[in-house]
Every structure is written in structure tokens, then in C-alpha cells.
Design brief:
Layout lengths: L2 E4 L2 E3 L2 E3 L4 E2 L4 E2 L4 E3 L2 E4 L3 E4 L7 H11 L7 E3 L5 H4 L2 H7 L5 E3 L1 H11 L6 E3 L5 E5 L2 E7 L9 E5 L4 E5 L18 H16 L3 H13 L6 E4 L10 H10 L7 E6 L5 H16 L4 E6 L5 H10 L2 E5 L9 H13 L5 E8 L5 H11 L3 E2 L4 E4 L4 H5 L1 H9 L1
Parallel strand pairs: 8-9, 9-10, 10-11, 15-16, 17-18, 17-19, 19-20, 20-21, 20-22
Antiparallel strand pairs: 1-2, 2-7, 3-6, 4-5, 7-8, 12-13, 13-14, 14-15
Length: 395
């Protein structure tokens, strides 16, 4: 069912209320999501993106109820990933000659995923335009690595709508579509989680692209992303947040992250948190178990933090396998301007703390020399080393 956005622009996407994960199982979803596709009906009829592959046949049938598919003049493929392009195979079987406007990289992406069907691709770059009648144009903006090489955004003049694709989105189901209708706490929580886990590795490019968009002097009344709420109420607020988040973001927070075998490392984790409260009462502290807490939620807290402390007991001359996987993900997200310290217990060889320090440095953290390395269970001398570790993190 279509939902009105503005003038001759409608939403024709799919709300995934039951969706629990994304990118395979790499991204957790707790509040649903959506794949937002848009229909523009000026003198020319334009479809902006489609929906995820599992919904492709329903999407096409729903679209048929709204419009004669043969009247679609152009298709805009802002991004080749299958959550945006997954209905193209079913749609193009109905209207095979319809031009598809996308970046050159998107042609490779779409043909790589769905095969070479002889689709009528029209490649575009930043500043290229497409007349759609009634004095309106679509202006294309390359968004390379936000978050794929093929990504772009499309701006509609006249109505001043930026179809931003993955930028400015959230994995969040909002039946009423718009940001002013959404639960504000969940909206900003999901927007921050989305930025942290998907866009933070490309923060330098985000900052550069925001500057470029500003230089294009586009009047933006609505930002219509491909997931989550559409920003119609003060849409530039999310752009301002992206500017903050892309600039080595941190709050006055320390996050203690750990896994434990026989609770010794857990005791150290909680003692470190308590010491942070003693030394800096205004600092927010989070204590999160890698084994028990969703990894994307943990990374969102790390993103907010000025510093982290990471703990693991030694196991087989290393750290726990759960911590190993988490550290690799930490490295992938490329956090900047954050401190870190390591702690853990051991019974035999005791390598975990040294290895944690090396891995945290490899992930781009400023690693404190101060650490806590406890033989068997923490004793008085071990707890006595915690104040120096916390002081280093707070400096």
C-alpha cells in the first residue's frame, strides 16, 4: 500500500516488523526495520529503489495495484545491495526495457548478483541530472563507500527531497513513516547503532561527503533514507548528528567489556567500574559481558566512550575465543581518539593481558601501560592496581 510523502511522491516500500537480523546475522535488529522504496509521479514516473529479495514478488504485486508498471519511465538504483535491489529481477521481468539509473559500480554489483540480463543501464555521476517534468529534476550525488563503492543519493528539485539510501537511516520499523511520529528514544538509539556498526569505518568519507553536500547548496525539506524513519521534521538534525559522529565522537563514558571463565575476570570488571565512579562521579560507566550482550549493542556503547577496559582470562596461551571474535569486529569498526586498558586472570601461562594490549593497539586505541593481571582469583594486591589503570583511562 502506498503512503503519501509529499505532493506526487509516495512510499511504496516494505515494513519488516519481524526482522531479527541483517547482513546475515551480523547486525541485530530488536525494533523491526523497513526497506523504503519511493514512487515519483510527475510528467515522468520514477521508481526509486525496490525492496529486499524475499519480498520481491509481493512488492511487484503491490506496485501493480498502485500503478500500471508499463507507465514507469525510469528506475533509480541508488545502491546494488540486495535489500535495495532485490526486487529488480521480478520487476524487470515485467518491464525489461525500462532504463535503470545508477553508478558504474552499481552495474557491476547488480550484474554480479543477478546475472547479465541486458538491462538498460544509464550510468551517472555527481551533478548529473534527469528531467522528470513539471519543472523538476533528479540530481545524482555519488556516495561512494557510504557504505558500498556503488552507493549514490538522488535529490529531487522542487519538492526538495533527498533520497539518501543508506545514509541517515536506521533499522527501525515506523508504521507512520516519519521521524516526528516515531518513538524518539528508539529513533535516536537506532540511528546511533546504525551509524556505529555500518558507517563508522567510513567516517572520514562521511565528513568529506557532508562538506560536499553543503557545497551543492541543496535546499532539503525531507531526507528519505532506505531504512527506518523519513526525516521531515527538521531533517538537517540527522545531518548535524552525522557531522558530530564522524568527528572521532565520544561522550564522558567508560565502557568495561569482558568475558570470564570462573568469574575472576568478572570481579575485576566490576571493580574497575566502581573505581571509575569513585574517581570521576560524572562519568557514565557501562559493564558489558561479551558472552551475554549483543555485539552491536556493545559497539554502540564503545562508540560513545572516551575509553574502554577489555578483560579476558588466559585460555590456551591466548584470550577466550568469544573475545577474539569481538576484538576482530572492534578492529573493523575503526574507532578513533579513544583510550583502552586490559585486564584478566590466569592460572598457568598468563598471556591474555599482553595480547589484549597488542590487539587493542592494532585496533587504533591509545593503550595504557597500566593493567591488571591476576593469578587465579583477584586478591588485595590485584584490586590495588585498579586505581592506576582507571586514572590512566580518565586522563
Amino acid at each position: 500500500m502506498r503512503k503519501h510523502i509529499k505532493n506526487n511522491v509516495s512510499w511504496v516500500g516494505w515494513i519488516d516488523w519481524e526482522l531479527e537480523s541483517f547482513h546475515g546475522d551480523d547486525y541485530s535488529i530488536f525494533n523491526g526495520s523497513s526497506q523504503n522504496a519511493y514512487l515519483i509521479e510527475e510528467e515522468k514516473t520514477v521508481l526509486v529503489d525496490t525492496v529486499w529479495t524475499p519480498h520481491r514478488f509481493d512488492f511487484v504485486e503491490n506496485l501493480k495495484k498502485e500503478i500500471d508498471l508499463g507507465k514507469i519511465d525510469y528506475i533509480i538504483a541508488n545502491h546494488g545491495e540486495c535489500d535495495h535491489s532485490g526486487s529488480l529481477t521480478a520487476l524487470m521481468a515485467e518491464i525489461p526495457d525500462t532504463p535503470i539509473y545508477c553508478t558504474p559500480a552499481a552495474v557491476k554489483s547488480l550484474e554480479g548478483q543477478y546475472g547479465k540480463h541486458g538491462w538498460n543501464f544509464r550510468t551517472v555521476k555527481t551533478g548529473d541530472t534527469l528531467d522528470i517534468g513539471n519543472g523538476k529534476q533528479l540530481v545524482f550525488v555519488d556516495m561512494k563507500m557510504l557504505h558500498w563503492p556503488d552507493s549514490m543519493a538522488t535529490y529531487m528539485t522542487g519538492d526538495n527531497i533527498l533520497f539518501s539510501n543508506d545514509a541517515f537511516g536506521q533499522h527501525f520499523a515506523v508504521g507512520e513513516l516519519f521521524n516526528d511520529k516515531a518513538d524518539q528514544c528508539l529513533l535516536w538509539k537506532e540511528a546511533l547503532k546504525y551509524y556505529t556498526n555500518i558507517l563508522n569505518p567510513f567516517s572520514a568519507l562521511v565528513a568529506k561527503k557532508l562538506t560536499e553536500l553543503e557545497g551543492m547548496n541543496l535546499d532539503i525539506d525531507i531526507i528519505a533514507p532506505s531504512h527506518g524513519a523519513i526525516w521531515r521534521d527538521s531533517p538537517m538534525q540527522i545531518v548535524k548528528k552525522y557531522a558530530e559522529w564522524s568527528d572521532a565522537y565520544q561522550e564522558n563514558q567508560i565502557t568495561v567489556v569482558y568475558d570470564t571463565m570462573w568469574e575472576g575476570t568478572a570481579k575485576l570488571a566490576h571493580a574497575i567500574a566502581q573505581e571509575v565512579h569513585l574517581q570521576s562521579p560524572d562519568t557514565v560507566v557501562k559493564v558489558l559481558s561479551i558472552a551475554k550482550t549483543d555485539k552491536n549493542e556493545i559497539m554502540t556503547e564503545v562508540f560513545k566512550s572516551r575509553a574502554i577496559a577489555v578483560g579476558s582470562p588466559t585460555c590456551c596461551n591466548s584470550y577466550l575465543s568469544s573475545v577474539a571474535g569481538w576484538l576482530e569486529f572492534l578492529k573493523q569498526l575503526k574507532f578513533k581518539n579513544k583510550k583502552a586498558a586490559a585486564f584478566g586472570c590466569y592460572g598457568w601461562s598468563g598471556e591474555s593481558v599482553k595480547l589484549l594490549q597488542a590487539k587493542l593497539a592494532e585496533a587504533g586505541f591509545d593503550v595504557a601501560e597500566e593493567h591488571v593481571r591476576s593469578l587465579w582469583n583477584p586478591e588485595e594486591d590485584d584490586f590495588a592496581a585498579i586505581p592506576a589503570l582507571v586514572k590512566s583511562l580518565l586522563q
